[in-house]
Amino acid sequence: MSVIEQRKVNGKKLLEINNLSVSFRSPEQIVEAVKSAHIELYEGDCIGVVGESGSGKSVTSLSILNLIKPNPKSLTTGSIHWNGGESSLDLLRLNEKELAAIRGNQIALIFQEAMSSLNPVKRCGNQIAEVLKIHNIATPAQYKDLIFDLLRSVELNEPERVCQSYPHELSGGQLQRVNIAMALAGNPKVLICDEPTTALDVTVQKKVIELLKSIVVERNLALIFVCHDLDLVAQLCNKVVVMYRGDILEQGVLPDCFDRPKSPYTKALLACRPKPSYNDIVLPTVGEIMSGAYSKTHRPQGALDKDEIVLSVKQLSVKYRTNPLTLFERKKYFTAVINVSFDLHRGEVLGIVGESGSGKSTIAKCISGVVEASKGEMEYQGVKISKRILSKNKELRRKIQIIFQDPYGSLNPRMTIGKALLEPISFHKLRPGGAGKRVNQLLDEVGLDSSYYARYPHELSGGQRQRVCIARALALEPEILICDESLSALDVSIQAQILNLLDELKGRLNLSLIFISHDLSVVHYISDNIIVMKDGIIIETGSADDIIDDPQSNYTRQLVDSIPALI
User: Fold this and answer.
1) How far is residue 103's CA from residue 150's CA, in Å, rounded to a whole number?
2) CA–CA distance, 289 with 484 (Å, rounded to integer)
3) Do 456 and 406 fall within a single domain?
4) Phi first, then psi: what are they for 342, rounded to 5°?
5) What single string gives the DSSP state of each residue in 439-492?
6) DSSP letter assigned to residue 188
7) Predicted model pTM
8) Are residues 234 and 358 in the same domain?
């Protein structure tokens, strides 16, 4: 029995969502994101809200703090009663001053996208201090010790460096942990977690889940855990809400709801979870399972050519300056990557795994020309590449594409999805006369229909935005595709669809991939070989099966052991 199951539940009712409906108006239609939802949250409850991208999970969680204001493009109806104070309040009918006293203090929210939820021009320590100041939690003299304790509690063991860092100077996983620390700073009664472990590697994810368990028990905290990972929900939560296209299809107690699901949709979600037995077959999707169209077929075999090296990295090192530029202060540096060397062969999928801050994303940015290497050499098919060379060579840049981790920060908020996909095609003059048709084809390939063409990034869920970023990278028909945590925001069904797509493209186009992820089960499925990194250094390399089934280093064993157990 888990810690969550042992504690007392169904005490005082803290929150009651009644007949909640949220709709958004687009140029073509009205989209009902949430339809007549009813959820009750009691003291001691941990409710998991699951469903595919666009099912209404995040909209429901944002509505609790009235963050979706009625305007000409959106409409929220129903009621959300908060009983955590002296009297019952309808959160949808409070003014901003009344809401400010509740937000971050009684009810705290951890957003899905760490970078976009932090102020880019303020140091992380100052942003946590703001929470303490707004809610009068401590005196200014106590801020430093409290902030350091919060950061250590979320496994950020260099609190002074993190406090002095701006958001862009930290990895995605480190940023998410800063967000969790900020949410806990106000000592809330209810914690809403909107995909809080999306950017975290498996070891930190495991620690954060254990941390949330202990916090919930020690503080008698109620938790709403929005997540597309059913295994994490099963580990943490005592209840579950299953959503599909705005409707709540099923609610129940765990583990009964997952052991004996009533809804065909819940059964399909469970069947789509990555399994070791799926490694040799095309992955199933929710739609295929529900329609009965899925049948086991073998994956297409890519033509891995071990004799042709498309990318060679030799003794690559990258360091970042950590102190401000001044005339008299000595320069200080943080070394993110140390003497890394590897080869990528034609048709190969090379997985790179490691904890947050291990240097995975820095390597990706170097290869794609975003970051300049401090030392070492990189060659694409025998031609030297660097940030400077790639910035000048348009054709070379087209052949090496990267899908970034943060989908919202990767898209222009003022550009429609259709224009965002058209831009690279037009710039490289790839489809004269047929660019529009190619855009619709790309949308279809990543599981989005033509109605998304006229939408803006803020009108999409996190998973939908990530699919747009994947489509944009594929639009240029690259020879090397770098996936930097590109599936982390996707639900299991769309994740399966994208993995199948990458498999098909690899076989059809003889594409070479560098696949960076914290999800070892996904890396094991898609990769031929795996590199394991820690603190900027390669710890272990080998075939995907050898790394997962027979790890040689203690660090790799720790990563493998942290993979969430299947339900």
Assistant:
1) 19
2) 29
3) yes
4) -165, 165
5) HHHHHHHTT--GGGGG--GGGS-HHHHHHHHHHHHHTT--SEEEEESTTTTS-H
6) -
7) 0.75
8) no
pLDDT tens per residue across span 214-259:
878 877 789 999 988 888 898 899 999 999 999 999 999 998 999 9
Same domain? 313 vs 248:
no
> Is 300 inside a domain boundary?
no
CB neighbours of 279 closer than 8 A, spacing ≥ 6? 524, 525
**Distance from C-alpha of 472 to C-alpha of 476, rounded to nearest angstrom:** 7
Is residue 301 left, alpha or beta, with left meaning phi > 0 and alpha meaning psi from -120 to 50? Answer: beta
Q: Which tokens go with 264?
A: 């065909």
Residue 348 CA: distances (Å) to CA of 257, 446, 473, 480: 40, 22, 18, 10
Strand order in the sheet with 13-25: 30-42, 13-25, 74-82, 89-90
- Same domain, yes or no, for 224 and 373? no
Task: For 124, list phi and psi in degrees, rounded to 5.
Answer: -60, -40
Backbone φ and ψ for 324, nearest 5 degrees, come out as -65, 155
Give a yes or no: residue 533 inside a domain.
Answer: yes
DSSP assigned state of 298: B
Q: Are residues 238 and 309 in the same domain?
A: no
126 and 78 share one domain: yes
Q: pLDDT at residue 9 above 60? A: no
Please, are residues 530 and 366 in contact by the beta-carbon 8 Å criterion? no
The 8-class DSSP code of residue 404 comes to -
Task: Give φ, ψ of 239 to 5 degrees.
Answer: -140, 160
Q: So what's the pLDDT on residue 446?
A: 83
In a domain, 280, yes or no: no
Residue 259 half-sphere exposure, CB side, CA atoms within 13 Å? 5
The answer to whether the CB of 248 falls within 8 A of the CB of 263 is no
Number of independent structural domains in the chain:
2
What integer is the mean pLDDT of 414-421? Answer: 93
493, part of any domain: yes
Range of the domain at 371: 305-561
3-state SS, 28-79, equals CCEEEEEEEEEEEEECCCEEEEECCCCCCHHHHHHHHCCCCCCECCEEEEEE
